[in-house]
Amino acid sequence: MEIKEQTATAEQKETIRKLHNEESKRVKISAYLIAAVVCIGATFVIRLKPFNFIGSYHQLLNNILYAGAFSFGILIVSRFVQGQIAKGSLEKGLLYNLIQFTRLVTFIIIVFIFISFLNANWYTAAVSLGLISLLLGFALQTPISSLIGWFYIVLRGPFKVGDRIQVGSFNGDVVEINFLDTTLWEFAGNLMTSDLPSGRLIRFPNSLIFQSQVYNYSWQKYPLVWNEISFYITFNSDLDWVEKKLRIITLQQLDAETKEHVQDMRDHISETPVDDIDIKEFPFVNFRIHENNWVEVVLIYIVNPKHSSHMRSKIVKAAITELLREPEKVSFVAEGS
Q: Where is each Mechanosensitive ion channel MscS domain found (predicted)?
């Protein structure tokens, strides 16, 4: 299963689809508006004589109704803002994050409204909110850290849905980013020796990004990684011919888009302080002397990280087939040597 870049999950698509549904939008806004009017109307009704039995609870009920009316007004504004965000031209994953952020802010504002109306004294309300926050901070340290981690992911963007990443010991393609955790479709892991999906999902708290390094193999400016293939030949092989032949074979297997990224890589390096790296011909072929007096040939090329296993197999099959056709130019190390 390949996770495409910039691809939204089913949950994200459904959320955005509902916000685009004009009929559903009108129904919800109308319901919020009616509820707000009912709350305001109820404040006048409870002042009538039949409700005198409420007694000392009259003011409390009145404050709750006013808080409800204001809250429904905030929900109307929030619904409108979410609809405008859903109409944006940004990729689905980012739109979903913005919508979730709007809902979170809406919830916080509504909580603050109720606390304010239930405490006539603002100082008392502030102290109450401070004490509640302090208690929740101790009791919910990990969830709060994960929520802050979600803010960091959304604002700083170390990765997004569709990226192939490594966080700590977890490797996978990002399929979902929620308030408290991130879900990966694992590749490699302890079940596989290649860069193929293992079939398992990994769910880790967002707070982990503050404790571990984040490796992104799908960086937007340069969405490719370096791979290498090594094999052994004897000293009497024609090294210049081997180098030239391997470069030709590799270029035949790589697609045009991958080849174009070589120039992008040169441009990115030239814009950084690391200007002493000289990217010459591509792909590269390096030779090393093995401890058993063989020549180790190392073929280095760039590839989409999600296609690395497939591309490695194609290059190996093509290279072995071509090199075996010229036994006078190259000889491999004998089996069992």
A: 143-193
Q: Write the pLDDT tens digit of every residue in 71-103.
A: 888 888 888 888 877 776 666 666 777 777 788
Is residue 5 one of the residues assigned to a domain? no
| pLDDT of 281 above 80 | no
Q: Looking at the predicted structure, is the pLDDT value of residue 167 above 50?
A: yes
Query: Do residues 130 and 237 both lie within one domain?
Result: no
- The CATH number of whichever domain residue 193 belongs to comes to 2.30.30.60
Q: Residue 112's pLDDT is what?
A: 82
- Cα(326)–Cα(73) distance, rounded to whole angstroms? 79
Instruction: Answer yes or no: do 121 and 173 share one domain.
Output: no
Q: What is the pLDDT, as a whole number, of residue 171?
A: 87
Give how many domains the chain has, as a whole number. 3
d(CA 66, CA 42): 9
Do 23 and 130 belong to one domain?
yes
C-beta neighbour count of 141 within 10 angstroms: 11
- Per the CB < 8 A criterion, the answer to whether 149 and 205 are in contact is yes
Contact 234, 295 (CB under 8 A): yes
- For the stretch 69-83, what's the b/e string if a residue is b when 16 or more beta carbons lie within 10 angstroms of its beta carbon? bbbbbbbbebbebbb
Which CATH number covers residue 312?
3.30.70.100
Specify the residue for token string 């609809």.
Answer: 83
- The residue assigned the tokens 């888009």 is 257
* Kind plus residue range of the DSSP H or E element containing 199: strand 197-205
Rounded Cα–Cα distance for residues 192 and 202 (Å): 15
The number of helix segments (H) and strand segments (E) in the chain equals: 9, 8
- CA dihedral in degrees (295, 301, 303, 307; nearest 10)? -20
Is residue 68 in a domain? yes
**Average model confidence (pLDDT) for the chain?**
77
User: Among 197-201, 256-260, 263-267, which range has the highest average pLDDT?
Assistant: 197-201
Q: Are both 167 and 236 inside the same structural domain? A: no
- What pLDDT, on the 0 to 100 scale, is given for residue 135? 60
